[in-house]
Write a structure and sequence with these properties.
It is built from five helices and five strands. It has helices at about 25-30, 85-95, 105-115, 125-130, 140-160, and strands at about 1-10, 10-15, 50, 55-60, 70-75. The longest helix is centred in the C-terminal third of the chain and has 21 residues, at about 140-160.
C-alpha cells in the first residue's frame, strides 16, 4: 500500500491505495468522480483523459502513485452544471456527442489542445490530427471538430474582450 496525495480538481486529497492502482481507478473508485471513463485499459481510446500538472494524459496509463504530489483536473473540475466550460458548452451546442462515452476524454483533450495552440489558433486539420488518440465509435467526428473549433474561437473572443 502507498499513501497518495494530490490536488484533485482544486482540492487536496489523499488515500492509501495498492501500488498497482491506476490513476483512473483512483479517480473513479477511490474519489467517486465518474466523469472520467474507462474504455479500453490499453491507452487506445482516450475516454480516460485528464490533466496532470497541466498536461493531458490517459489516466489508464499512469499509476496513482505516479501522480502523487501532482495537480489533477478531471471533467468535473473544468466546469459545473451552472457554469459550463466553453468546450463543454460548445459540445452541447454543436452536438459534439452521441452516446457520450468518449465525450469526457474528447473535452479534456480539446481543452489541452486549445491551451497548447492558443485560443483561436486551431484549424480543422490540426483538430483532427490532435484527436487521433481519442476514439468515438458513434460519430464521424464532424460535430466534435466543429465544437472544438467553435470553443477555440469563442475563447479567443473572450480573451480579446478581457483585454
Amino acid at each position: 500500500m502507498s499513501k497518495v496525495s494530490m490536488v484533485l480538481n482544486g482540492k487536496s486529497v489523499s488515500a492509501d491505495v495498492e501500488d498497482r492502482t491506476l490513476l483512473v481507478s483512483f479517480i473513479r473508485d477511490v474519489r467517486g468522480l465518474t466523469g472520467t471513463h474507462v474504455g479500453c485499459d490499453t491507452s487506445q481510446c482516450g475516454a480516460c483523459v485528464v490533466h496532470v500538472d497541466g498536461k493531458a494524459v490517459k489516466s489508464c496509463t499512469l499509476l496513482a502513485a505516479q501522480a502523487d504530489g501532482s495537480e489533477v483536473v478531471t471533467l468535473e473540475g473544468i466546469g459545473s452544471a451552472d457554469s459550463l466550460h466553453p468546450v463543454q458548452a460548445a459540445f452541447r451546442e454543436h452536438h459534439g456527442l452521441q452516446c457520450g462515452f468518449c465525450t469526457p476524454g474528447m473535452i479534456m483533450s480539446a481543452v489541452d489542445m486549445i491551451n497548447r495552440h492558443g485560443a483561436g489558433n486551431l484549424d480543422e486539420a490540426t483538430i483532427r490530427d490532435e484527436l487521433e488518440g481519442n476514439i468515438c465509435r458513434c460519430t464521424g467526428y464532424h460535430n466534435i471538430v466543429k465544437a472544438i473549433k467553435a470553443a477555440s474561437d469563442q475563447m479567443a473572443g473572450m480573451a480579446q474582450a478581457a483585454e
